[in-house]
Amino acid sequence: MSVLHQCPFNSPRLVMNKVLSKSQHEGDGAVVRRGIGRSELPRLDPFLMLDYFSVTPPAGFPDHPHRGFETVTYMLQGGITHQDFAGRKGTIRTGDVQWMTAGRGIVHSEMPAGAGTHKGIQLWINLSAREKMIEPNYQELLSEDIPTAEEDGVEVKVIAGESMGLHSPVYTRTPTMFLDFTLNPGAELHQTIPHSWNAFVYVIDGEGVFGFQGCTPITSHHVLVLSLGDGVSVWNKSSNALRFVLIGGQPLNEPVAQYGPFVMNTQSEIEKTIQDYHYSKNGFENGKSWRSQ
Ligand code: FJE
Ligand code: FE
């Protein structure tokens, strides 16, 4: 094996911090493993929250608002039906993605689509001060529209950004990469990441060696915060498949004021947002009498 292949990066990213996502209750009876947005890892600019969720009816995420950021929901098993206060409604199923820009305001419900257990990942990405109050927008990608490549035992689904020469059609207002990798036993991966972006891994299944070859394998439901650098290397030295998402984003470097599902830059903007929501103003107009069905 060539030296180049062992370390193709000038400044390889290493695992700087490892956080186990433990189960907690959220919404109405739903269970989430919160990786980002917990005391050990309150946020990782531009990311505000990462939940690995599991919902079984009647549990779900009934009517609630958002302002000032984007939510990305990626289904791993089953489906979630969303309904919002502007009459938009849809179901995303295994492998589908909903990239929702809450902007100035969305009120919606996110509920399991049918019996059984429904699983996925929800990521919250902050918007810059300049874009917090933009019109809400949805980008929905069906599983078959997500660029997928496979090479030497490595499969990638490019949900945002680019990998293995493939580009996602998703428009990211805050520049973001979101890659879903599966490595067969014995496979290795070397993925470039823009140098100054914050990046992390969430291990979904199996165990992998991240950063450099000599590291201890890391098991599922850990968040691995990567140091800065030009890329990350991963090895699957186990006898089972390894699945993880690699997520990176350009930091906004702006002040963050958060009150639950409202994320602004200052406390006075948060107080304004609470009033807007309460009085159904400035983007929350449709919320006056709306209830999900
Ligand atoms: C929310 C409580 C919540 N993680 N993962 C408070 F439960 C939520 C919320 C979610 C959520 C929804 C899905 Cl589909 C998946 C989630 C939290 O809806 F937004 C606040 N503020
Ligand atoms: Fe929501």
Automatic annotation (TrEMBL):
Residues 32-125 form the Pirin N-terminal domain. Keywords: Iron, Metal-binding, Nucleus. It holds the Pfam family Pirin_C. One of its GO terms (cellular component) is nucleus. Its cofactor is Fe cation. One of its GO terms (molecular function) is metal ion binding. Fe cation binds at H64, H66, H108, E110. The keyword Iron applies. It comes from the Eukaryota. Binds 1 Fe cation per subunit. Residues 179-282 form the Pirin C-terminal domain. CDD domains: cupin_pirin_C, cupin_pirin_N. It is found in: Nucleus. Belongs to the pirin family. This is Pirin-like protein. The lineage of its organism: Eukaryota, Viridiplantae, Streptophyta, Embryophyta, Tracheophyta.
